[in-house]
Amino acid sequence: MKATAKVVYEGNLRTQCTHMQSGSVIQTDAPTDNNGKGEAFSPTDLLATSLITCMQTIVGIFCQNHSIPFSHCEGTVEKVMYSDPRRVGELHVNLDFSENKWDEKTQKKVQKAAEACPVAKSIHPDIKLTFTYLF
């Protein structure tokens, strides 16, 4: 099995993560509400961010495979933490596809593709997912 990433704990609740294939580097930091400085993505921020980036990527692949023009998408994701145990309890994703001018049939297909992304299908069912689309 080939490693996806190498992660080094740098101290002070910070890690450096290197993507093995590309060499791309990101850092994580514990959030301010959990003993950290909040100076970088937290591990749970990465979970939330991976959901929205996966959705956008899968829409891109879907549109490419079906010859659907796809020029732009912006979005936000809100992570809601729960306690006892401390965990991600909710993820609220907002995606703005309004620059693409799709008909209603295409919009429904894009929405279905987005919500079937691998990250969404990997998130524990106890995490409440809310998706809002602007077309």
UniProtKB/TrEMBL annotation:
Record Gene3D superfamilies: 3.30.300.20
Protein name: OsmC family protein
One Pfam family linked to the record: OsmC
Top-rank taxon, per record: Bacteria
